[in-house]
Specification:
- With 349 residues, the protein is of the alpha/beta class.
- It folds into 2 domains: 270 residues, Aldolase class I (TIM Barrel, Alpha-Beta Barrel); 61 residues, OB fold (Dihydrolipoamide Acetyltransferase, E2P) (Beta Barrel), CATH 2.40.50.140.
- It has 8 helices and 15 strands.
- The strands form 4 sheets. A 6-stranded mixed sheet has the order 2-3-5-6-7-8, covered by helices on one side. The protein has a 5-stranded mixed barrel with strand order 11-12-13-15-14.
- A hairpin with a 5-residue loop joins strand 11 and strand 12.
- The two termini are 29 Å apart.
Length: 349
C-alpha cells in the first residue's frame, strides 16, 4: 500500500484513481483509497483487497499497487479546490476506486469536509456491506447527506455471483436500508442493469423503492438510480452479459417508467448539479511536457509523474521507469472541464 501524503510529493490533481476530481460542476469527487472488500465480476476499476496473491494471473498482471491518501492531505487539497471553484453550493462525493469504509479514518475525513462552509452536501458511494446501525448513526452525526449504495440483485445467489464473494448478505443490506431511511441520511439505491441476467432483480428493486415511497419515506433525491452495464479496458468483464447501447438502455427505462409510474431516467439536475468554474490542467492534448516519475501507478504500464507542485500525470509506458527519472511525455488525454492528465512516454533524458 502506497501512502500519499505531503512527503510523497504526489499532487492530488491530475489522477483518476486518487485525489480530487473536478468535472467543471459543483460536484467534487474525493478518492482516498483503492482497495475493496468485494471482487465484483464487472468492476470497471478492477478493485480488490490485499496484495492480489489469490487473483488469476491476468489480474495479477494488470494490478500492481494500491494507494491510501492521508486525511490531512486530502483536506488541504480540498480547501485549495474549493478556493478555485468559487462556488458556495458544493457537493463532495466520496467515490473511491474501492470501498470507502475500508478507509481507517473515514469519520475524521467526513467531519473535516463538513467544516467547509461551501460544502452543502456530502454523499458517499459504497457497496454497503460494511455498514452497521452504529456506523450509520456515526455518519448521521458527522453530517453525511446521502449514501449511494450499489445493490444489483435481491436474489442472493445472483448477488453473490456478481459481488464475487460467497457470503454477500442481501437481507443484512436491506436491514441497513431500513436504518438509513429512519435517519437523517438520504438513500440512493444504485443497481447496475445486466441485460438478460438481472432483469427480474431490477424490477424487484424498482418495487422496493416504490414501497419505501408508499411507506412515507421522503427524500429531495430519487430513491433509485439504475446504471447501464459498461465494459472498460482496464476493468473486469462479466462474461455472461453483453453491454447494451445507451439508446436501448434509456428506451427500456422509459417503458418501465410508464409501467411503474416512477422516474427512472436521471440527470445532473435531479441532484442539483450545475456547471461552475473548472479546475483546468495547464496543458493541452498533443503537448510534450517534462515530468518527474514518483512511483508506479495501479497497473504495470502506469506511472505517476509530477508536472509541478499542483499537477500529477498518469504516465503510460511499456518501458520500465524509476523514481526521480525525468521523462518527456506526450499528453493524450486532457478535457477542458476535467482536471485529469494522461500521457504516453515519448523519450527520456
Amino acid at each position: 500500500m502506497i501512502k500519499v501524503d505531503e512527503k510523497s510529493g504526489i499532487p492530488l490533481f491530475g489522477l483518476d484513481f486518487i485525489g480530487i476530481l473536478d468535472r467543471g460542476t459543483n460536484l467534487l469527487e474525493i478518492k482516498p483509497i483503492t482497495i475493496c472488500n468485494l471482487r465484483c465480476k464487472y468492476c470497471f476499476v478492477n478493485a480488490h483487497f490485499g496484495d492480489y496473491k489469490d487473483l488469476p494471473s491476468k489480474e495479477k498482471q494488470s494490478k500492481v499497487n494500491n494507494f491510501i491518501v492521508d486525511v490531512d492531505y486530502i483536506l488541504k487539497w480540498l480547501k485549495y479546490a474549493l478556493d478555485n471553484k468559487k462556488c458556495d453550493d458544493i457537493e463532495v462525493h466520496i467515490a473511491p476506486y474501492g470501498e470507502f469504509f475500508l478507509y481507517p479514518r473515514y469519520l475524521e475525513l467526513i467531519k473535516g469536509i463538513r467544516k467547509f462552509s461551501q460544502v452543502k452536501i456530502i454523499s458517499i458511494q459504497t457497496n454497503g456491506t460494511l455498514l452497521t446501525e452504529t456506523v450509520v448513526k456515526d455518519l448521521e452525526r458527522a453530517g453525511v447527506s446521502r449514501l449511494n449504495i450499489s445493490l444489483n440483485a435481491l436474489n442472493e445467489d445472483r448477488a453473490q455471483k456478481l459481488s464475487g464473494i460467497p457470503n454477500y448478505n442481501v437481507k443484512k443490506l436491506l436491514a441497513i436500508f431500513d436504518t438509513i431511511l429512519k435517519s437523517q441520511i438520504d438513500l440512493l439505491i444504485a443497481p447496475i442493469w445486466f441485460f438478460k441476467y438481472n432483469d427480474e432483480d431490477i424490477i424487484e428493486i424498482i418495487k422496493l423503492a416504490k414501497k419505501y415511497e408508499e411507506k412515507g419515506f421522503t427524500s429531495p433525491y430519487p430513491f433509485l438510480g439504475i446504471q447501464n452495464y459498461l465494459v472498460y479496458k482496464s476493468g473486469r468483464k462479466f462474461w455472461k452479459v453483453e453491454p447494451r447501447q445507451f439508446i436501448h438502455f434509456y428506451q427500456k427505462l422509459s417503458e418501465m417508467e410508464k409501467t411503474y409510474n416512477t422516474k427512472l431516467k436521471l440527470g445532473p439536475h435531479d441532484f442539483g448539479i450545475h456547471t461552475t468554474v473548472p479546475i483546468t490542467p495547464p496543458v493541452e492534448v498533443g503537448a510534450k511536457i517534462s515530468v518527474t516519475i514518483i512511483c508506479k501507478g495501479r497497473s504495470n504500464v502506469e506511472y505517476i509523474g509530477v508536472l509541478d507542485e499542483k499537477w500529477a500525470v498518469k504516465v503510460l509506458s511499456k518501458v520500465s521507469l524509476v523514481p526521480q527519472q525525468r521523462v518527456t511525455v506526450l499528453v493524450i488525454k486532457q478535457k477542458l472541464k476535467e482536471n485529469l492528465i494522461t500521457a504516453n512516454i515519448s523519450s527520456s533524458f
